[in-house]
Amino acid sequence: MIAVFLFIYFVIILTVIEIFVILFRLTGLKVAISRFQVISMMTGTGFTTKESELISGHPIRRKLATFLILFGAFSLAVIISSISEFLSNGLRTKEILLSAASVLIVFSILRQRQVQKHLSNLFNRKMKQNIELADLPIREVFLKNHQDTMLFLTIYQDSQFANRTIRQVLPDIDALDLEVVFIKRGDIVFRKKVYDSPLHEADQILLYGNKQVMFETFQPDMEIMEKH
């Protein structure tokens, strides 16, 4: 009987995982990332990767994650207590079957395209109404496709930009598919006239734009950064 219980509860856990994979996917997260992070949160292991920032930095996903973490802790307690109860009084199969049926029903409902479409619209509407841009991860705000990227370029003494302006080195900078967001010099950040401000050694430039254009334009300086 204990084997039957463990099998049923295992089915419940797998179904809950798939339910939350669907929910996270409806918020815009990739399926592969969703499944790994869901399993990590439920088991309390592995939720320390950079991908976890996609969840912890997203308000709706953070709420889903909170429930999932609590469910994982609760599941462990249920399994331990149920095994103990079985060893002492026998297992209540009826309650377990009802729980499994309930979870499977929820999973079946979430598999419906109309339900997924409604939830996706609901999540997006809630994001637009209640979430400030600063609450979202940089990846979701700026990197809308695989061609976009951001780069923090450090200026060294042998850099082509050292003691020169960006426009002096790149006269056609305005025509390139990239932007200089700001120049950071110690604790000071410059956002105005960034193309015409002389750059000093140890300055940092935040660049945003097309990945290929950026790498072709700043390749020499990127190689200098790697050497240092």
Key features?
228 residues, 4-stranded antiparallel β-sheet, 4 strands, alpha+beta
Question: What does this protein look like?
Answer:
A four-stranded antiparallel sheet has the order 1-4-2-3, with helices on one face. Helix 1 (2-26) runs parallel beside helix 5. The mean pLDDT is 79. Strand 2 and strand 3 form a beta hairpin. Helices cover 59% and strands 11% of the residues. The chain has nine helices and four strands; from the N terminus they run αααααααβαβββα.
* Backbone CA Rg: 26 Å
**Strand percentage, roughly?**
5-15%
Mean model confidence by pLDDT:
79
Q: What does the largest sheet look like?
A: 4 strands, antiparallel
Gross morphology is elongated
Q: Count helical runs.
A: 9
In total, the number of strands is: 4
Helix content: 55-70%
> Low-confidence runs (pLDDT<50, min 5 residues)?
none
Spatial order of the strands in the main sheet? Answer: 1-4-2-3
Give the terminus-to-terminus CA distance: 64 Å
